[in-house]
């Protein structure tokens, strides 16, 4: 009964794609988020305003629209760029925008904006005295960041990151609309072919709940790690 | 400047795209989006109030099912919920001839169902959080003056919880506006659907999607501003003089 | 005197939290016009005693009788519970409490706070409640602050407002739990002045306080609690001037 009318293997592949997409996008979002948060707390007005415009834009536009813009626009933009290069260099190249990569980039760019807000709040929450102490003991800025500010900050950032991650995970479903075969896409195809929506949609829904449950365990573990020295009786 | 203009000109003079025809398409999309979002939010809000009260209650038979409902609707993508509502009834035998046919013949109804339940779940959690944050002393004062549990709820707990919930609810409204873009996946021509149509017709993604992005952004800002005004009014009691 | 003529009688109250026994047989009679002050070290059970009187805590044993009407209890899963919450609500509205932390309802204006219980508990018409509420705010010196929200008032103003709110239900007994402890020293005087006036006009009051001047000047009876027992009780002139118990002597000794 678990062969899902022959769709079992494809569903599993879809689930794997969802997981990969989610994790890679999370990493992209964390990196972008950290950079943008640093830009926002930097002294350069230009960096600051670019970062602010970026987060404002992203937060005003639906994920799906952003995704369609970057995905459909990405190929055409790439074509324009290669056409230009070809005309200039006299070459004949064509770069195919990979749908999976486009998905990762899009989700990374969108959730990078949300992550940057989380990180910025966490930066502010770290007591300035702690960083001063680190510098006073002769730590280089990078070392001080890595050994002092980052672990302290993560304690404050973790709940926000967890929140963004859960939203991101569900947003990966949108890639099925632009044709990536994640588990929602497979379920949609299978439903259309077999007319058995519940057979496919319910297990996929459970799949998301399962990923959420696993990530909750991870977050609890991380929380314990970053809470060292702060844990209270509560 | 000259050079810049020549580069931008193709986009501007692409008035092939923003014809009265396509603008009308966008307008219809806007109307559909606003209708979908507005109706789901209003109905979802009305559902969320009793759900939140039940979820905050200590009665397990009341509180656990609501918790489960919220967990499922908040833990799975809205897209799945939309597909279940959209396909779930369509393939039932005989539904075409039943009084229920209207529901499957127009994708707006399943979309409304999914959106409403989804926002009800999120809103319920927002309210529950606000209810639990009721200052204990205020509740105690209400009981100390002889208010019954129900009166204390109606007069003290809920009014102050609604005010506290306002900022988070404002976020939920904007979230719903953005989430509604997936209505285009079940053939509803909402704003995103209109943009996709324009893109597909002219194979030109930038004008089609950037324009619709601006419309969403404008709507978001208007909503945000509206909630800011509401918050300063409703939360003025928390500001020291 | 028959119980029915006495506003508040409490007999042999016991209460423990988990296994810790906090009240060990406390009794008290508040006659018409009495001002009873409860004093004692922190943790001696003063607040718990007061909160039992209007059933914010349910005593494990003992009677509470308001103008001859005893609160009925029943046994439920080995814990004692009021037999009728309706009765409790009715009794609570006759014993108004003023809290250490004011506990004004933050989303209502001051006048809104004052008229809330009269309208929604006692069913007084809004117009009438408002007129009376304004008169009460006048009394506590806050008529010009009627439309302010609690967060916009100083602590002393909030506490005077809370007293007006308590008076608005026309209580037979006023219960005060350290009404001035959360206040800056310069704001204490205004609140105590209002309480003195209430005592002078013959209100029945039970007051938990650390203000010994108030206890000495205003009260008809002082009760000193120690570990949930009445260690000493009597007229302020006796209890505060000539304490018998060494503990009370130490409690009253000037601190340096
Ligand atoms: N809800 C409760 N749960 C458990 N223990 C409690 C509770 N309320 C009070 N207690 C305990 O009962 C004892 C008496 O507390 P109570 O608040 O009545 O003292 P108090 O005399 O009012 O002290 P203070 O002057 O500090 O206000 C304390 O040891 C306290 O820890
Ligand atoms: Mg106390």
UniProtKB/TrEMBL annotation, chain A:
One of the Pfam families matching this protein, by short name: BPD_transp_1
Molecular function per GO: transmembrane transporter activity
Localization: Cell inner membrane; Cell membrane
Signal peptide: none
InterPro entries in UniProt: AA_ABC_transptr_permease_3TM, ABC_transp_permease_HisMQ, MetI-like, MetI-like_sf
Name the UniProt record assigns to this protein: Histidine/lysine/arginine/ornithine ABC transporter permease HisQ
Residue span(s) of domain ABC transmembrane type-1: 15-219
Keyword Transmembrane helix on entry: yes
Alphabetic keyword roster: Amino-acid transport, Cell inner membrane, Cell membrane, Membrane, Transmembrane, Transmembrane helix, Transport
TM region(s), chain numbering: 15-39, 51-73, 93-114, 165-186, 198-219
PROSITE patterns cross-referenced by the UniProt entry: ABC_TM1
Any one annotated GO CC term: ATP-binding cassette (ABC) transporter complex
Chief location of this protein within or outside the cell: membrane
Entry keyword annotation includes Transmembrane helix: yes
GO biological processes: amino acid transport
Its membrane topology: Multi-pass membrane protein
From TrEMBL, chain B:
Coiled coil regions, renumbered to chain: none
Source organism phylogeny: Bacteria, Pseudomonadati, Pseudomonadota, Gammaproteobacteria, Salinisphaerales
Protein name: Arginine ABC transporter permease protein ArtM
GO terms, biological process: amino acid transport
GO molecular function terms noted in the UniProt entry: transmembrane transporter activity
Stretches assigned to the ABC transmembrane type-1 domain: 30-227
Cellular localization per UniProt: Cell inner membrane; Cell membrane
Keywords: Amino-acid transport, Cell inner membrane, Cell membrane, Membrane, Transmembrane, Transmembrane helix, Transport
Taxonomic source organism: Salinisphaera japonica YTM-1
Gene3D superfamilies noted in UniProt: MetI-like
UniProt keyword rRNA-binding present: no
Keyword Transport: yes
Transmembrane residue ranges: 36-54, 66-89, 109-131, 173-199, 205-227
Similarity comment: family membership: Belongs to the binding-protein-dependent transport system permease family. HisMQ subfamily.
GO cellular component entries: ATP-binding cassette (ABC) transporter complex
Membrane topology summary: Multi-pass membrane protein
């Amino acid at each position: 009964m678990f062969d899902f009318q022959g769709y079992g293997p494809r569903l599993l592949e879809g689930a794997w794609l969802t997981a990969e997409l989610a994790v890679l996008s999370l990493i992209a979002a964390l990196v972008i988020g950290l950079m943008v948060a640093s830009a926002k707390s930097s002294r350069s007005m230009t960096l600051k305003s670019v970062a602010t415009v970026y987060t404002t834009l992203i937060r005003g536009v639906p994920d799906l629209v952003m995704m369609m813009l970057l995905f459909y626009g990405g190929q055409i933009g790439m074509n324009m760029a290669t056409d230009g290069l070809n005309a200039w260099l006299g070459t004949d190249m064509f770069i195919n925008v990979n749908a999976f990569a486009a998905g990762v980039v899009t989700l990374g760019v969108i959730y990078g904006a949300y992550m940057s807000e989380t990180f910025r709040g966490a930066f502010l929450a770290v007591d300035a005295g702690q960083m001063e102490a680190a510098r006073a003991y002769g730590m280089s800025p990078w070392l001080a960041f890595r050994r002092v500010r980052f672990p302290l900050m993560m304690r404050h950032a973790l709940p926000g990151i967890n929140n963004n991650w859960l939203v991101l995970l569900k947003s990966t479903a949108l890639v099925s609309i632009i044709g990536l075969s994640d588990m929602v896409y497979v379920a949609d195809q299978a439903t259309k072919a077999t007319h058995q929506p519940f057979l496919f949609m319910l297990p996929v829904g459970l799949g998301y709940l399962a990923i959420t449950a696993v990530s909750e365990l991870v977050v609890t573990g991380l929380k314990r790690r970053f809470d060292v020295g702060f844990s209270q009786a509560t | 400047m000259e050079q810049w203009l020549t580069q931008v000109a193709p986009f501007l003079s692409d008035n092939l795209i923003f014809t009265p025809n396509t603008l009308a398409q966008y307008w219809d999309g806007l109307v559909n989006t606003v209708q979908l979002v507005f109706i789901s939010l209003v109905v979802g809000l009305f559902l969320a109030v009793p759900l939140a009260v039940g979820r905050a209650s200590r009665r397990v038979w009341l509180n656990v099912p609501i918790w489960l409902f919220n967990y499922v609707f908040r833990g799975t993508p809205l897209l799945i919920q939309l597909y279940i509502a959209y396909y779930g009834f369509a393939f039932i035998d005989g539904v075409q001839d039943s009084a229920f046919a209207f529901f499957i013949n127009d994708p707006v109804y399943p979309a409304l169902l999914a959106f409403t339940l989804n926002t009800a779940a999120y809103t319920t959690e927002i309210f529950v959080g606000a209810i639990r944050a009721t200052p204990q002393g205020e509740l105690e004062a209400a009981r100390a003056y002889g208010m019954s549990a129900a009166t204390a709820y109606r007069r003290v707990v809920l009014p102050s919880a609604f005010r506290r919930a306002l900022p988070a609810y404002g976020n939920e409204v904007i979230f719903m506006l953005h989430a509604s873009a997936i209505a285009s996946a079940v053939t509803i021509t909402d704003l995103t659907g209109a943009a996709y149509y324009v893109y597909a017709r002219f194979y030109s993604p930038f004008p089609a999607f950037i324009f619709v992005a601006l419309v969403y952004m404008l709507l978001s800002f208007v909503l945000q501003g509206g909630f800011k005004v509401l918050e300063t009014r409703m939360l003025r009691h928390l500001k020291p003089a | 005197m028959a119980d029915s003529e006495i506003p508040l009688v409490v007999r042999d109250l016991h209460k423990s939290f988990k296994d810790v026994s906090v009240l060990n047989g406390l009794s008290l009679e508040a006659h018409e016009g009495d001002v009873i002050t409860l004093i004692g070290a922190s943790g001696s059970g003063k607040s718990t005693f007061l909160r039992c009187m209007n059933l914010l805590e349910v005593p494990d044993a003992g009677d509470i009788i308001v103008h001859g009407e005893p609160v009925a209890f029943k046994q439920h899963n080995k814990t004692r519970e009021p037999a009728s919450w309706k009765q409790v609500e009715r009794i609570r509205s006759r014993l108004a409490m003023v809290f250490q932390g004011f506990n004004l309802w933050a989303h209502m204006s001051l006048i809104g706070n004052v008229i809330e219980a009269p309208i929604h508990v006692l069913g007084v018409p809004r117009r009438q409640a408002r007129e009376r509420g304004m008169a009460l705010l006048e009394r506590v010196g806050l008529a010009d602050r009627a439309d302010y929200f609690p967060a916009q008032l100083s602590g002393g103003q909030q506490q005077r407002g809370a007293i007006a709110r308590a008076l608005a239900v026309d209580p037979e007994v006023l219960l005060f739990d350290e009404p001035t402890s959360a206040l800056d020293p310069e704001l204490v005087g205004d609140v105590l002045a209002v309480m003195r006036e209430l005592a002078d006009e013959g209100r029945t009051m039970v007051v938990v306080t650390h203000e010994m001047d108030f206890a000495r000047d205003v009260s008809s009876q002082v009760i000193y609690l120690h570990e949930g027992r009445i260690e000493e009780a009597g007229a302020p002139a006796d209890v505060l001037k000539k304490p018998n118990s060494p503990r009370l002597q130490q409690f009253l000794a000037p601190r340096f």
